[in-house]
Amino acid sequence: MTRTIVVVTAGLSVPSSTRLLADQLADAVAAQVGARGEAARFEHVELRELAGDLATFMTSGGMPTQRLSEVRDLVSAADGMIAVTPVFTASYSGLFKMFFDALDTDALTGMPVLIAATAGTARHSLVLDHAMRPLFAYLRAVVVPTGVFAATEDFGGSTDLTARITRAAGELAGLVVSTDHVAGFGPDAGERRTPQRSAGTSVGPVTDFADLLRGHAG
Amino acid sequence: MQFGIFSVGDVTPDPTTGRTPSEAERIESMTRIALAAEEAGLDVFATGEHHNPPFVPSSPTTHLGFIAAKTERLLLSTSTTLITTNDPVKIAEDYAMLQHLSGGRVDLMMGRGNTGPVYPWFGKDIRDGIKLAIENYHLLRTLWREPVVNWQGQFRTPLQGYTSTPAPLDGTPPFVWHGSIRSTEIAEQAAYYGDGFFHNHIFWNKEHTEQMVRLYRRRFEHYGHGSADQAIVGLGGQVFMGTTEAEAKRQFRPYFDNAPVYGHGPSLEDFSTMTPLTVGTPEQVIERTLGFADYAGDYQRQLFLIDHAGLPIDVVLEQIQILGTEVVPVLRTEFERRRPAHVPSDPPTHSSLVAAGPDAPHHLVEPARATLEAAASEGARA
């Protein structure tokens, strides 16, 4: 079964070092998924192309544009995510945050996510753990232990960037390929094994009114 | 089919002059809009209810009572009545009183408010929003239908031997709509009681409206009130008209660009594509509005928002005139032309509900209960 991995990047220039890092991560994840006997398909979401849609969403009381709705569906239907942002003013960029603000709170529930960031210097590297990790924890995503931070200097010279990319990609591939949700087998903790995800783009299931009225009918 | 105006009642500076009307002027304007609606041959005027600036309509029954005294035919409604933070006992009394004063020209639309702090201001918790809407509305229905009420719930002090006065006019409670943009629970609530469902889709895309209305229609049928296409649906709309599309856009654009809800955001053109907003000729408004039935089905009430964002009162009155003379007469004919015979044209009114008699389902607190119980015993027999 081909796994779909959505690659969300918030680089602003074309080409951007953020996209460059994202592409390296995607290649590494493809190799790691392949090594586990499965195939991966990558869907790229360049947030720069959604900047106007996101501004419209924010200034119209949360009404998604057609394109934003399509991306929301794409994201929530994916098997995993690679999220890469440039560091702006000690955190992820505003554009990056706007995108995640525009998702439903259940949009990423249980989704394996690889976080990565780029910056001019290595002094910003804690952005991964102080900003990105809490964001995805709030959204109940499963963030892989290794985050990948690339300062400008990492794109040249001898650094261990490639090793970090490989390790993070292996962690993401492991989660994406994991097959522990074969129905009817294994321990039952009383909860549904498959996380319930919602893109927020369609009207959800209806609760029967008898349940809503229970305890309120006087 | 009913056509009308609904007003938010915002006090907004006119962006072309910088002038802000006083609260007194704005309230007076709302009255003039209602009177003009009747004069222009429209059917309904609905006022919002808000408890925060820059909005003036905090006391809808006071205002609607005043308008009732100055009109003959106009149906008075709300958009919306806060079923969450108002005491349902006071809603029962206030709107029954308005029924008597207006000769039954009243219905109302339940909603949950436009701002979070309205909950704590009235001693409620916003996290209980849906539960409040459910419990309070059930109590409201009971107060209008049972002469003596003994009641205990989660949110209000219990009632022992309480009688709401005055009783509804002719022993017939007003028809109720439930307005909700996104909450499926509210569509379900409207369906359960066989009430109307209003989707104010002026800030929303039609794909979403379609899903919400379809959900309501399906559940209306499930609860035994009729077939899905007979469910009572109302829609919002937002229009501005001129002699040409270019002229209408030229005149409306500064108001759009600075509007409180969507100003400084999407362009007028984008917003017109995304939502039902139509800025153009009366013919364009007719064509667009008729299109609503393509995704919402044949429906019973169309309300237009025309007086927000600081538009001057003279311009608003002119828009009502155009609606009444050039748009609504055509809409009436065309909507009836496409409507199947078994689909009601009008929502229930006081006279139709009185005519249906005291044994009609409208007089039951839970009209669906008999249907559900019959279905359950049918299932047990089978």
Give a structural overview:
The complex is a heterodimer of chains A (218) and B (382). Chain A is an alpha/beta fold and 218 residues long. Chain A has a single domain, classed as Rossmann fold, CATH 3.40.50. Chain A has seven helices and seven strands; from the N terminus they run βαβααββαβαββαα. Chain A has helices spanning 17-35, 51-59, 66-77, 94-101, 127-138, 161-177, 209-213; strands spanning 2-9, 39-46, 80-88, 91-92, 112-119, 142-143, 148-151. In chain A, helix 1 (17-35) crosses helix 6. Chain A is globular and about 75 Å long. The model of chain A is unreliable at 181-186 (pLDDT under 50). Chain B has one domain: Alpha-Beta Barrel (TIM Barrel), CATH 3.20.20.30. Chain B contains 13 helices and twelve strands. In chain B, strands 1, 2, 3, 4, 5, 8, 9, 10, 11 and 12 form a ten-stranded parallel beta sheet that branches. A two-stranded antiparallel ribbon of chain B has the order 6-7. In chain B, helix 2 (60-70) packs parallel to helix 3 (88-102), helix 3 crosses helix 5 (129-145) and helix 10 packs across helix 11. Chain A binds chain B through residues 55-56, 58-61, 63-66, 69, 202-210, 212-213, 215-218, and chain B through 130-131, 134-135, 138-139, 142, 151-154, 184-185, 187-189, 191-192, 203-205, 207-208, 211-212, 215, 219, 223, 261-266, 270-271, 274-275, 368, 372.
